[in-house]
């Protein structure tokens, strides 16, 4: 690679870094502004907006509500996704491509189209807007990611291990619980954290299928209607820090599990 190409790639890289991080830095900074309006110059600084986040019952309620939805939808998507991944990986049968295509379709459909479709279908089934409808839509949207991650992990599982277990008298369920499932644990953990973050940050499906109690993204959107203020920046920053810490922890934990499981 020539020196000119290296310089060009470096410029593109740092331009991308600035494009991603400058808005985040500005968002965090404005949360410290001692004023009801965001913008420069910042004449004085305060921690009141951040301390107010943890004292705001409405924000804490929305955060808890979002977390419960994220955990339950992740649990459902992991169970369903694991079953589908085990069904599809390493097996050849009629309709396999069709099942795989239907499984990954929710990840390919644009969010707004998906949300409208879920809302129409929920009304047809008689499902009222609220927690149940949101959990259902988030779980369906997350299943493809679980399937893809687990199928990639299963493709590296030596078939000799499961065959040896079967030769020693283990039935398919025991072979799965003793051989396949422990091997899938790192991938399941990684997929779970990914789905948890996806569900927690999902605005479109939560907005279309939500009831009277808002999730955290919907609450932030509602506050934006009355204008930008440092309070919104503080709420968004706290949510960003929590998700970032969780993502970093998950990456390190998954890497350690991968080393332990070979």
Task: Draw up the topology in text.
Elements: H1 3-30, H2 48-55, H3 57-88, H4 96-108, H5 111-125, H6 131-154, H7 159-167, H8 172-201, H9 204-209, H10 216-224, H11 230-260
Helix pairs in contact: 1-11, 2-11, 3-6, 3-8, 4-6, 6-8, 7-8, 8-11
Average pLDDT works out at: 82
Largest sheet: number of strands, sense, barrel closure: none
Q: Tell me the Rg in angstroms.
A: 23 Å
What are the secondary-structure elements, in order, as H or E? HHHHHHHHHHH
Unreliable sequence segments: none
- Please state the overall shape, judged from the principal axes of the Cα atoms: globular
Distance between the termini: 35 Å
Helix content: over 70%
Q: How many individual β-strands?
A: 0
Oligomer: single chain
Taken as a percent bin, the fraction of beta residues is under 5%
Number of helices: 11
Give me the secondary-structure category: mainly alpha
Compact summary:
78% of the residues lie in helices and 0% in strands. By secondary structure, the protein is an all-alpha fold. The two termini are 35 Å apart.
Would you write up a description of this structure?
The protein is mainly alpha-helical. Helices cover 78% and strands 0% of the residues. The chain contains eleven helices and no strands. Helix 3 packs across helix 6 (131-154), helix 3 packs antiparallel against helix 8 (172-201) and helix 4 packs across helix 6 (131-154). It is globular and about 75 Å long. It starts with a helix and ends with a helix. The mean pLDDT is 82.
